[in-house]
Amino acid sequence: MPGNSFGQFFRITTAGESHGPGNVVIIDGVPPGIPVSVDDLMVDINRRRPGQSKLTTQRKEADAPEFLAGIFEGRTTGTSVAILIRNTDQRSKDYSDIKDKYRPGHADYTYDARYGFRDYRGGGRSSARETTARVAAGVLAKKLIERDFGGRVTGYVCQVGSVKANIPSPQDVSLQQVEQLPDGSPNIVRCPDYDAAAKMIDVIDTVRMDTDSIGGVSEIVATGVPAGLGEPVFDKLKADLAKALFSLPAVLGVEYGIGFGCAELRGSENNDIFESRDGTITTATNRHGGMLGGISSGLPIVLRAAIKPTSSLAKEQPTVTRDGTPTAISTKGRHDPCLLPRFVPMGEAMVAIVLADHWLRWKAIDR
Amino acid sequence: MPGNSFGQFFRITTAGESHGPGNVVIIDGVPPGIPVSVDDLMVDINRRRPGQSKLTTQRKEADAPEFLAGIFEGRTTGTSVAILIRNTDQRSKDYSDIKDKYRPGHADYTYDARYGFRDYRGGGRSSARETTARVAAGVLAKKLIERDFGGRVTGYVCQVGSVKANIPSPQDVSLQQVEQLPDGSPNIVRCPDYDAAAKMIDVIDTVRMDTDSIGGVSEIVATGVPAGLGEPVFDKLKADLAKALFSLPAVLGVEYGIGFGCAELRGSENNDIFESRDGTITTATNRHGGMLGGISSGLPIVLRAAIKPTSSLAKEQPTVTRDGTPTAISTKGRHDPCLLPRFVPMGEAMVAIVLADHWLRWKAIDR
Amino acid sequence: MPGNSFGQFFRITTAGESHGPGNVVIIDGVPPGIPVSVDDLMVDINRRRPGQSKLTTQRKEADAPEFLAGIFEGRTTGTSVAILIRNTDQRSKDYSDIKDKYRPGHADYTYDARYGFRDYRGGGRSSARETTARVAAGVLAKKLIERDFGGRVTGYVCQVGSVKANIPSPQDVSLQQVEQLPDGSPNIVRCPDYDAAAKMIDVIDTVRMDTDSIGGVSEIVATGVPAGLGEPVFDKLKADLAKALFSLPAVLGVEYGIGFGCAELRGSENNDIFESRDGTITTATNRHGGMLGGISSGLPIVLRAAIKPTSSLAKEQPTVTRDGTPTAISTKGRHDPCLLPRFVPMGEAMVAIVLADHWLRWKAIDR
Amino acid sequence: MPGNSFGQFFRITTAGESHGPGNVVIIDGVPPGIPVSVDDLMVDINRRRPGQSKLTTQRKEADAPEFLAGIFEGRTTGTSVAILIRNTDQRSKDYSDIKDKYRPGHADYTYDARYGFRDYRGGGRSSARETTARVAAGVLAKKLIERDFGGRVTGYVCQVGSVKANIPSPQDVSLQQVEQLPDGSPNIVRCPDYDAAAKMIDVIDTVRMDTDSIGGVSEIVATGVPAGLGEPVFDKLKADLAKALFSLPAVLGVEYGIGFGCAELRGSENNDIFESRDGTITTATNRHGGMLGGISSGLPIVLRAAIKPTSSLAKEQPTVTRDGTPTAISTKGRHDPCLLPRFVPMGEAMVAIVLADHWLRWKAIDR
């Protein structure tokens, strides 16, 4: 049953619920000598943090990570790293209503089916709170791939409701564009097409005032990845990246490169043509999203994840109790009207972890 | 690096290339006592077989599987099962041209980047030939889930090019509808909407005569799956199913339930409302595709995979040689103009393997 | 590299060093509904604790475990359990001498060979301090096997130096016999043959006064284990148990049943003869140590581990520095003159974890 | 349940029984470019082969391995290698007696307890026949470690019954000494102390004529292993090596270095003292058997395994039937009177596989 580990070589194992003492991650397979500090962790933890803008839940979480193991004199030792992020602002009473009512779109019912016993004070293990630990681990993965091959992972929001961003060159989007508007103020929706960003904010504001929520799409781009990462059959790079993104809450679809658009194309339209540029074999177009046969091609890896609208609504929804009695539920306060802005660092973290894992796997056999 | 195994508990490990002696699969974790014969394997192997209709490659492959281990008196023994499918119609000379030229859309270049050494007589390990072993293993998975909980997995083609099928009730599509037309003749495109099927055949015929190819979408449905399968975090059922499908060649996108359509919906539109029916908690709609919080809900599991158009084209395409010299390539004969009809049994097999795996995982802790 | 996890289904993952913030264990695969408290953990943690008698190191460690996750209302939830045991009495200055000198018998040199970088303030990750986390996890494993099949794991010391205990019936040794003398005072050497225990204490006292140390043998017995646990090939129960014990510090040999004594026997002397007793098939003798073909036979499982004398000596020993310069080292104070008494709970924990793991594996396929 | 795989990175997965079509191994994680041929495999397969001398069973097995996958132009491709060894001389009728009688010392009873269903025509999956596949895989492991770091693994017999060999310098024993006597004739008992070898042959001859069998001890030595292989906690090199040896049939004990002898030593007697020799840090003595803290020290790795006397005896032994009725059994013909000579290549193979695995793991993080 051990479903709380991810990765073969750069492997994270997590524990923690929304309303327990905290969330902890053990990161195994980290090479020795990588400098890392709590401040480094905070960069992405703050990007994932609730309450960062009017677009996100107003819960306050201190989210102060502590290294429990694996770090000596500011560098990784090569043995397992452990990071603890304690829960603070839990307000258990807010959740007492959901003890016996199944929230639509949530895992309450399926949890009961699986375990017959459930921490009813929130999502428990299925709460997005759990992703804090992944984001912390992702910081180490990002450091490893940047140190070893200049790899970078950047995510952003490319669709909210029917508003779609125009991102002509995904590989050129910078973290600064994602985080800041031209005037230096925060880009709270994390869409680097600023016109679209303004419209997305309007959409989110509207659904928020309607006590409703809205879905969207996030794009994650990895640059600097050398050709040759990934395994030919089951552990194709695309397969592990897809599992990584689908393992995040609320993801209902994943595609890379041309994605579902490939269904309508002919082979002669879809194939990217190889050419030699400065002594390197590459392709001018990137409909293949940086992976061929499940192995990285050296081109930017471009993935998209579809995120459903937040299931928790202040608006009243019909449902049933554990014994099947019809009732209604409205989830009070403090929920994101749109999950997309906070999804970005989660998606980046999972992509970075997969790349770190496949990098180590590649080193083991090919050098 | 061991990327040739899939599954934690019901685990398959494969070896084999398109032009080596054969493909072999070891299936570990099969409970004892399941009746299985070579004839059982042939049902799905024949559905995957090349040369079955004008829509598929005209290669002839005998595809005669042999049980090497794990079967005694027609039943599984509980120890590892091995199945060998020898390669027969290899015609290595057909492929000599590709020794030094990189085929657009293929893994030739990425393989060289990974291994620096490659069986150039075809796709090698990345050939779709490898999936024969998965299809054979999938038959055992299907038998296990049907025996233990009445689970069934049925796939079909729902889009080819711009032709989309209308499938109002995915869970009601039968294997017979997928395989046969009302007049008993073979449904060669495996689309249960027969009007759409006729149009799809026209599209494929057209691209075939143009020495081109076309993409599409396949839908895979699992019925009878009890609520409670899947793990809450990394091994969410949706995550393992997505990895399973993305591990197949040519898959560029996977979605379940409402999928990418969720991006445009509000929470109040997207949430499926719980109700009690005959003492069972269920939902009237199934936008959640049978999984909530990564755990099965008891509703039909509905997945879709986007398949790119075949990369091999008889039409000449520009490319480069291993040393970067511009050249052109046309892949002679014997390629599927559309991968979709033969994808169906592959997708079914991978979905069945994931369900068998999570079923055993569930038994270990919950009974 | 992930070498910090153990078990396939009941799996523990640990992190922590002797001189970092603490040691943490994540236990995956724990079924829901098992009652457990911090007090339960303390029973075995106290048996492993330093400073418990004159026979052990005089270091004081508070060893107060904290559940971080996986427990709700005093019971396991079925999701991953995390336990943190903070380090308290570290006294880093005591260890400054060993920064550059390689302690004989320790892992200092091999760590530098592996990582090139080492937390020199003690054994780091290779310190026996790390086993606290295993002992805590072992408590959960013990609870699971006792609840599900009445399994019990009891260890004791059967040899110190040349003093060998006479234990005619290993399966009848009780925890009380191991922990207490007939007069109710603590059995500080944990040998249930009280005459031998007295002699062992004399031996340990003697080496302690000589600033030296002494080796020994511990026997671990598991009763109540049903026939049928274990896998036929690589994951034989004996193989996983041996790995479990060898993964503990200072273990140089493991045997079960007749062990190395089998080398001198004929088959007709060694084979245990099957018989039927009260409708159950069993054997009158147990030279096979409860396992045949790697699978449990229903008889008591009897294992022995040889433990080397503590490597750290107050007595001065010659050695070299990191750059190879000859020097000498004497490890001041606070080391166990004999590791055996504190080994007992560690060995029990590892055996219990293996049994819990194989129990869940058995349930997955056979029920 | 998947207990049919071994290794994390250099991983073998096997299937096959004594009386099925054959035994197959898939070897995952083999780096590309290693030259290997069927003749290479035959060297060790012939050493393991039955019928090679009067000391072994007189069964004839052709043991002709076939590469099914992973080899191209005589070299490994980097993808999974598969090897099939068909069974030929099965003579199923010889075994019909054991369908309902439990052979003392065998896994018949425990198999029934585990699976409730058993291939009764021999040991099935628990037959030593299964080790042929491991020996074949071991050849690839030996080639890898020799190519990459000059590693060599040599095993021999050091005890049969009460006859003990005197091997003053285990690391200097050559394959030729193990296989040949000074006069060039075969060293059929594989003991490099020729005086002891002669006595061992006498002992085996005696028990054979008594329709009995005899146990013994084998020593396996690995030289050229660099310092730094192994993981600090669960995957200690000693732990993985012990599991590897205990996973072989009939092994009841494993020790390394001074082994169980450590129990009687003081720390000052047992510690090996570090010194610098030619700029390398090493120890003059090797009581630590080449591993400290679970990590290789650069000294020869020296392991010993205790092997029980063959359980199958022509001599009649009492036993019971499946339903518990007392009966007697005598296993006709064709069994090894002593397992030791044929154990040597099995032990070598498993040790080589562990070293190959840890070598790849080390490369992944440390280079």
Task: Give structural notes.
The structure is a homotetramer of 367-residue chains. Chain A has 367 residues and is of the alpha+beta class. Chain A has one domain (5-366): Chorismate synthase AroC (Chorismate synthase, AroC fold, 4-Layer Sandwich), CATH 3.60.150.10. Chain A contains 8 helices and 18 strands. Chain A has helices spanning 38-48, 108-115, 131-149, 175-179, 194-209, 237-246, 267-270, 340-366, and strands at 5-6, 11-16, 22-28, 65-69, 71-72, 75-76, 81-86, 152-160, 163-164, 216-223, 251-256, 274-277, 280-283, 291-292, 295-296, 301-307, 317-320, 326-329. In chain A, the strands form 6 sheets. Chain A has a 5-stranded antiparallel beta sheet with strand order 1-2-3-7-4, with helices on one face. A 5-stranded antiparallel beta sheet of chain A has the order 9-8-10-16-11. Chain A has a two-stranded antiparallel ribbon with strand order 5-6. The two termini of chain A are 34 Å apart. In chain A, 67% of the residues are buried. Chains in contact: A-B, A-C, A-D, B-C, B-D, C-D. At the A-B interface, β1, α2, α6, β11 and α7 of A face β1, α2, α6, β11 and α7 of B. β11 (251-256) of chain C pairs antiparallel with β11 of chain D.
